[in-house]
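Thought: the user wants the 3D structure for the chain below. I'll pass the sequence to the structure tool as-is, report back what it returns, then summarize two notable features.
Action: structure_tool
Action Input:
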Amino acid sequence: MSDSSTPDDAPSPADPASLLDRVRTEPRPHAIALLTAVGVGVALATVHWIGLIAAGALASLVAPTVRRGVGYALGAGVVALAAFAVALGPAAAAVPGMRPVVYVAVGAGLALPLFGSLVRAVVT
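Observation:
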């Protein structure tokens, strides 16, 4: 018999599953984790386009439901597109005239994070 006051099968505070449940249910850890996930994902997207998939995956993992995970991934894509527009600086005014390139950039900026959000459906 164990001397501790908790049963042997109870999850420990350091258990990854309990930590993920806490992040998904408590408001403060949830907000911090979401901001961190989007920040890391957008930072990765500045290095390579696969970072957009990572942004969607990271943002959706902290979501309490799959549906919210899809919304968080779309939000991460919008943040990435906004960061891209800011990075263009004064050249952003010429972007609407570049129609085919704009379609690819916006499509990738929204579709790739959505693809990454499939992680939330797999990790429950």
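Final Answer: Structure generated. The longest helix spans residues 66-88. Residues 39 and 82 are 13 Å apart (CA to CA).
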